[in-house]
User: What shape does this take?
Amino acid sequence: MPPGGVAPKPGEPGVRAERAAGSGRAPSRLDRLRHGGRLLQDGASGGPVLRLVMRWVRRPLLPAVRLWRRNIQLRVVVSTLLMSLGVVILLGFVVIGQVRNGLLDAKAKAAQSQAAGGFAVAREKANAPVAPGAGQDGTATDGRTAGATWRSDLVEQLASGGQGSYNVVALSPESDGATGWGPRTTGTVDPASIPRELRTAVDQETGTFETYLQIKYNSDREAEPGLVVGTRLNDIEGNPYELYYVFPLAQEEQSLNLVRGTLATAGLFVVVLLGAIAWLVVRQTVTPVRMAAGIAERLSAGRLQERMKVTGEDDIARLGEAFNKMAQNLQLKIQQLEELSRMQRRFVSDVSHELRTPLTTVRMAADVIHEARSDFDPVTARSAELLGDQLDRFESLLSDLLEISRFDAGAAALEAEAIDLREVVRRVIGGAEPLAERKGSRIRVVGDDQPIVAEADARRVERVLRNLVVNAVEHGEGRDVVVRMAAAGGAVAVAVRDYGVGLKPGEATRVFNRFWRADPARARTTGGTGLGLSIAVEDARLHGGWLQAWGEPGGGSQFRLTLPRTADEPLRGSPIPLEPEDSRQSRERARSAESAATTGAKGQMFASAPPSHLSDGTPLPVPPRGPLPGSGTPTGVDPAALPGSGGARVVARPAGTSRTGAAPAPREKRQQAPHKQQAPQEKKAPQEKKASERSANRSAEREDTRRGR
Assistant: This one.
């Protein structure tokens, strides 16, 4: 949906989303889960379900993750245990492999030697002459019986020498088929245990062959691993047969299991021992570091007398000594700076107070001279007026110095009460209108149709807004000054917008420094004492609020005061964006949005020429006495979700003062004082009227100064 678009109500026609041709079927649940996180149809979101599941899975792990991140000793010990366990496992595999190979090699050599002896005995018996009278008729039946008996006797004789360490199996070749002799075995060994691949090799080739097998038995005895060695021989009748020696590996398997158990026990013991050693070693290193971190935190909290306990002469001891020396020097420097700052504050306060008495005397004499200036020549009369002007600036400077010294000493007190900011803004604008008329500017107010109520100190808020409005008028170059008010959630805000010289990059944060000016070479003939915005930002902080600045070269600036509705309520955002809608970046964003939302020939027409108005009809270039930049910010919006809140620049505590150092609005006498010499032919009646107005304004200013002390 384009920015500012509204979804159609149920039952009303809407724009159908474009879909690729041929995609007639609805997306499956897997597609919705992969692309949009939706498991249900009709727009029901399945994303929250997945997020809840992930949160439920992560929640038990959060304490462990937090402990892992915060405890370096745990990380070192766990890492040592894991690496030690990996090394032990790897070493165990290597050792077990070597032992297994050694046992199998020894068993294979013994089996080959035993089988070679048995094969030699079988050959000798087959080549021995037949005893007289045994089967002399040569019938087939008598021959088969004699051959079968000979094989059985041979198998029993060969197996009797092993004492159960091996078994002997005699099989007829597979090529004989049904005419072959039956198998002869010892120890209830199943003839099917002999692998077919081995029998094929023995039947087709000459020589001795061996392989590993799983020995099966015809009894209830469980199968076990073994080694078989076989060859092809001839019996007493010259018929071929296969003779196999089967060696069980049960004893070797028991030995290997014993080695595995021993290695596992030893490895576990080694891992635990290494973990304990790592814990002790790391503890010796981490404990001083933790102690140093705790002492550093206490030092940062202001407890400068904290020191580390140093024992020994090792590297940790030298670190502790260096840390203690650093803390001692830091304490000494901070004490010196505090004493110097205290002396400076005391000096400023004493000088300001001591100058009050002579300044009062000089003021009385200057007022007398100023009232009688009509009797002087033009040069002397002008000098009397300049004397009065500079005395006004001197009085303002002393008042600001006293006020800033109260903030530095922490003696400023907030007298909060429920006030309507509209009344405060009206008073400020009423006092600044003469200056605006002289500068050729108009002050507009936006968003005053509803009450803007907050718990605040009316005097301090009025002083802040007076500085902002007077600064905007003085630097607005004759263009309009817009004062916008808004309230939303738990915050209220007042923004002052001018269209003058603006601020260069980086000046928005330095504008609140004391006595700061954009052009240091410029004489302080305009503006106030240079402490106005510094006092203003301190007043805003005293309320728990923000005073922020935005500006661009040649595009003017905007200062925004944000206060909580109730005292001691934390701010989470501002109802008014810090960057105004008519800034260059805002116009670029509006132009991009309008180009993206416009289609067809009409969109091409508008894209060919830059738009001249925003979406609400406000002209982009703001000429003198031009229309308002926008309407008031709607109420009832969460300030944290409003634009400009996230990118707002909050002025840091140590910084403070003014773009131009504008002080409270000058009195009507100062605003109407001519820059050139007055003509000697000026009528007396207007002079007396102006003199009476200046006297009244001086009395009001002195009363305001007494209230600000």
Remarks:
- Residues 157 and 251 are 24 Å apart (CA to CA).
- The longest strand covers residues 224-234.
- The two ends are 57 Å apart (CA to CA).
- The longest helix spans residues 315-371.
